[in-house]
Design a protein that fits this description.
With 336 residues, the protein is of the alpha/beta class. Helices cover 34% and strands 16% of the residues. It folds into 2 domains: 120 residues, 3-Layer(aba) Sandwich (Rossmann fold); 175 residues, Rossmann fold. Strand 5 and strand 6 form a beta hairpin.
């Protein structure tokens, strides 16, 4: 089993990893920070491995492997699903730009790209396994109920439906990131997040970076209201440069992930009229969303608005959480 991480993005080693996987039919997954390291529609790709936050079939398949090849991964708290992952070091090959460890043995001065290319050229005969065939999440497809209140689950079902090859998903930290992990990214390196650094407020400035790098790519920004309040005025730069990100503000009136860990009034924040921010900035279009019907209409209008940014103020219940966060809560509750 190959678990590919963020350094495969950073050092442009995607083709080398794919060569290794394809010539030996080795199934692949990614860490959360390395998400979209290959197209998530590739037949060998299973999903994101993130301990209890990830899909159970992926977790079981990775942890049952007799050889887990971790390439360019950082084994941090978020990548390991708040340390709910269960990888046996005796069955792991761990290669990054900083170290190479095979089982419990450490090897020095081995470059990551040399190691990956060496594996690709080696005469290997790994055993064949049948990976899980159902690579979709446990969610049903989005079915519109126009009058129903919007929920996190239905929001991300609808977002997953609209993604295509021209879009880059930019996820901020917290449940925005956890929920986005279940999205299917069509092209490689089309998912950006601070899954290691957990820097709140990352997403809006990062969306500018996407279009500075490639004006033809359209960012879909997923950001909680707390994180949005930190850096939202960078949308003024988007207006100045004529960028057109679609910004989804998950407005649950506070820090939802922290409520999940320890509830209290310190998690509440002021409820801005986010959809009116274009009035202040002199550009962009704002939409207020409370129902599935309003979400559907707003997303269609935002997709058609090619000239400047679109901002959706999506009202969610304060304690509504994503399936990924619910999976984590269930696993942690058994441990504590």
């Amino acid at each position: 089993m190959i678990v590919a991480g963020v350094e495969i993005h950073r050092f442009a080693l995607q083709d080398d990893v794919l060569k290794l996987a394809e010539q030996h039919s080795i199934p692949m997954c990614a860490t959360l920070l390395g998400k979209s390291v290959v197209s998530e529609k590739h037949p060998l790709y299973l999903g994101v491995y993130e301990g209890a936050m990830g899909r159970e079939d992926v977790r079981q398949f990775v942890e049952a492997s007799d050889c887990v090849v971790l390439l360019g991964t950082f084994m941090t708290d978020i990548n390991l699903g708040i340390y709910t992952a269960n990888l046996d070091p005796a069955k792991c090959i761990y290669a990054t730009s900083e170290k190479l460890r095979i089982r419990h043995h450490h090897f020095h001065d081995v470059l990551l790209h040399d190691f990956i290319r060496g594996l690709g050229n080696a005469d290997l005969h790994p055993p064949k396994y049948d990976p899980p065939r159902d690579r979709v999440t446990d969610d049903e497809p989005f079915v519109l109920d126009p009058q129903a209140k919007i929920t996190v689950r239905q929001l991300f079902r609808r977002v997953n439906e609209l993604l295509d090859e021209t879009m880059v998903v930019v996820a901020d930290v917290g449940d925005s990131l956890f929920a986005s992990a279940d999205l299917t990214i069509h092209q490689r390196t089309d998912f950006l997040s601070p899954a290691y650094y957990t820097s709140m407020g990352f997403a809006v400035p990062a969306a500018l970076g996407v279009q500075v790098a490639n004006r033809d790519r359209r960012p879909i920004v997923v950001v909680g209201d707390g994180a949005f309040q930190m850096t939202c005025l960078e949308l003024s730069t988007a207006v100045m440069l004529g960028f057109n990100p679609i910004v989804l503000v998950l407005n649950n009136k506070g820090y939802a992930t922290e409520r999940f860990l320890q509830d209290g009034p310190f998690n509440d924040i002021p409820n801005w009229s986010y959809h009116r921010l274009p009035e202040l900035l002199g550009g962009g279009k704002g939409f207020e969303v409370r129902t599935e019907g309003e979400l559907d209409q707003a997303l269609k209008a935002a997709l058609n608005n090619q000239d400047d940014f679109s901002l959706l103020n999506i009202h969610l219940e304060p304690n509504d959480i994503s399936p990924a966060l619910a999976r984590l809560a269930n696993r942690l509750s058994k441990r504590l």
